[in-house]
Design a protein that fits this description.
Elements: E1 12-16, E2 19-22, E3 25-27, E4 34-35, E5 50-51, E6 56-58, E7 62-64, E8 71-74, E9 85-88, E10 97-99, E11 108-115, E12 123-131, E13 137-148, E14 154-159, E15 165-171, E16 173-180, E17 185-186, E18 191-197, E19 202-203, E20 210-217, E21 223-232, E22 235-245, E23 250-256, E24 265-274, H1 283-286, E25 291-296, E26 305-311, E27 315-316, E28 323-330, E29 336-347, E30 350-361, E31 369-375, E32 384-392, E33 404-412, H2 417-425, E34 431-433, E35 438-439, E36 446-450, E37 453-457
Length: about 450
C-alpha cells in the first residue's frame, strides 16, 4: 500500500449511534524528494533542508543516503520493504529536529522505529516534541524512548497529540510508517440556560403564574427530546416538553406552577433542561440559579357589616325631633365607609321611608363598630304600635341577612291643652279667657277662646 502525507478535512465515511468516523493522517516516506528552504528540489548530490511533503529540518540538513549529515532519506528498505524511511545515524548526538507540517488529527500517534546499528552495544534514541504551526519547536516532549542495535522494527505510540504540531528528533534511529487516526468526535447536544425569569412572591390562588428560561444548544448534534423541569424546594413541580433543538438553536420554555402541591412558605425555585443525548457535565449551565420564592395565601377582601343594635324611645307625636340609634359591627377585613342606612315603616297602608343616613365602621378586632342617630319623619303616624325595618346597604356583603333588623316602637301623643294653645300662639293666635280677657299665653287650666274656638285646658 502506497501512502502519502495527508490531513483530510474530516471526510466522514459514515455515522453510527452519534459517532463520526473519518480518515486520519499517515506518512510512509514513499516517493519523496529533498527540497531547499524555498521548497524547490535540490540536486542529486546536494544537501536539502526539507522534504517534498512539507517537512523541514530545523537546525540541520538532510541528504540522500545514510550517515552523511543530521538526517538521511532512504527511498527503499523501510519497515515495509517497498517504501522509504527517515534516519539519523550521524554521531552520538543530534541537535537538529524534523518539523512535521501537519497538525495531528487524533490523540494517538503510532510509528515504527529501528536502531541504525546492528550491534546490541549501540543504542538509538527518539523524541517527539510539541511544535508550532510556524515551524518553531517547543521544549515540551510528548514522547521519547530508545532501542538497542540489532533489534527488529518496533512499533511505538505517543498519546496526547490531538490538534498539535510535532517535531521528530532521532539519534542512531530510523523511523517509518507514521500514522495518526482522526479523533473520534462524539455527536452530542450541549444545552445551556442563557437567562431565567423567576419572580417572587407567588399567590397560592387560581392565577396561572409562569416562569421561563432562554436556552441554547452549543453541542455538535441536535438535542433530542429536550425537557425543561421546574423545581420547587428541590422537588420537580412542572415540566415542559421542548422536543428537538437544532445545533446553535435557542428558544424559550415557559412553565406554570402546579400549586396543588405547594404549601405556603419560602422555597428555592430553579429550572433545569435536559435531553436524551446531552450528558455533558456542565450542570452549572443546565440549571438556573435558584431563587428564593415566597408562596403565600392571598388575602381575600371580605365585606361583612352587621347591625348589632337598634334603640329608639317611644315616638311622641307631641315632640318635633325623633331619632333611631343604629349600631353596626364590621366582621370583615375591609373598612366600610358611608354605607347607606334606611328606615322603613308602613304608614296608612303604604310602606314609606321615614329616615335615611350613612354609617361607617373600620375593619379589625378593635374599634370595628360604628353608630349613627337617624332622624325620622313622623308624618302620618298614629298612636299605637309601629314596626320599623332598619337596613344597611353594603355592596358585596358576605352575610347580607344580618344587614336588616325589624324593631317595634310605640307611637304616643302626649299633647295637652297648654301645648296646643302655645302651639297655636306661634300662628299669631288671639287668646281670651272665658271672661273675655285677652291673654298672651296659657299658663294654667281652664276654658279659653282661641281664634274664636273654645278650648278646654286641663
Amino acid at each position: 500500500m502506497i501512502k502519502k502525507l495527508r490531513l483530510l478535512l474530516l471526510t466522514v465515511l459514515f455515522t453510527v449511534c452519534g459517532t463520526a468516523f473519518a480518515d486520519g493522517w499517515s506518512e510512509d516516506f514513499s516517493g519523496l524528494s529533498l527540497v531547499n528552504d524555498n521548497g524547490d528540489p535540490v540536486g542529486t548530490y546536494q544537501f536539502g533542508t526539507g522534504l517534498s511533503n512539507g517537512w523541514k529540518v530545523v537546525g540541520g540538513t538532510i541528504y540522500r543516503g545514510e550517515g552523511s549529515t543530521n538526517y538521511g532519506y532512504i527511498s527503499t528498505g523501510g519497515h515495509t520493504s517497498n517504501n522509504g524511511y527517515l534516519e539519523a545515524s550521524y554521531g552520538a548526538s543530534n541537535s537538529a529536529s524534523v518539523w512535521v507540517s501537519a497538525a495531528m488529527p487524533g490523540d494517538e500517534l503510532t510509528f515504527w522505529i529501528k536502531c541504525t546499528s546492528g550491534s546490541s552495544s549501540t543504542t538509538g534514541y527518539y523524541k517527539i516534541y510539541e511544535a508550532n504551526a510556524d515551524g518553531s519547536i517547543t521544549a515540551t516532549v510528548l514522547g521519547e524512548g530508545s532501542l538497542k542495535g540489532g533489534s527488529a522494527w518496533t512499533q511505538k505510540t505517543v498519546e496526547g497529540v490531538n490538534g498539535k504540531y510535532i517535531a521528530i528528533n532521532l539519534i542512531r534511529m530510523q523511523i517509518d510508517d507514521m500514522e495518526c487516526n482522526t479523533a473520534v468526535v462524539e455527536q452530542k447536544a450541549d444545552l445551556n440556560i442563557l437567562q431565567k425569569n423567576i419572580m417572587s412572591p407567588v399567590a397560592l390562588d387560581e392565577t396561572s403564574n409562569q416562569v421561563w428560561i432562554q436556552y441554547e444548544n452549543k453541542g455538535n448534534a441536535a438535542a433530542k427530546n429536550a425537557v425543561a423541569t421546574l423545581y420547587v424546594n428541590n422537588v420537580a413541580n412542572a415540566t415542559k416538553e421542548i422536543g428537538t433543538i437544532d445545533v446553535n438553536g435557542n428558544g424559550y420554555a415557559y412553565l406554570t406552577y402546579d400549586k396543588t402541591t405547594i404549601s405556603a412558605g419560602t422555597y428555592p425555585v430553579y429550572i433545569s433542561i435536559t435531553a436524551d443525548n446531552d450528558d455533558t457535565e456542565s450542570t452549572s449551565t443546565k440549571q438556573s440559579e435558584a431563587v428564593d420564592v415566597t408562596f403565600e395565601v392571598p388575602v381575600v377582601e371580605v365585606k361583612d357589616l352587621a347591625i348589632s343594635q337598634v334603640s329608639c324611645n317611644d315616638i311622641d307625636l307631641a315632640e318635633q325631633s325623633h331619632f333611631v340609634t343604629v349600631v353596626v359591627v364590621n366582621n370583615g377585613n375591609v373598612d366600610i365607609e358611608n354605607a347607606p342606612v334606611s328606615i322603613k315603616a308602613t304608614i296608612g297602608g303604604e310602606e314609606k321611608v321615614i329616615g335615611t343616613d350613612v354609617i361607617s365602621a373600620k375593619a379589625g378586632t378593635e374599634g370595628n363598630t360604628g353608630s349613627v342617630n337617624v332622624s325620622i319623619n313622623t308624618e302620618g303616624m298614629t298612636v299605637g304600635s309601629l314596626t320599623m325595618t332598619i337596613s344597611v346597604e353594603v355592596e358585596g356583603d358576605a352575610t347580607p341577612d344580618d344587614n336588616t333588623m325589624p324593631t317595634e316602637v310605640n307611637v304616643v301623643d302626649n299633647t295637652d291643652g297648654i301645648a296646643t294653645v302655645n302651639a297655636e300662639m306661634k300662628k299669631d293666635a288671639q287668646i281670651y279667657t272665658i271672661g273675655g280677657t285677652k291673654v298672651g299665653k296659657v299658663n294654667e287650666g281652664g276654658i279659653y277662646i282661641v281664634n274664636g274656638r273654645k278650648v278646654v285646658v286641663k
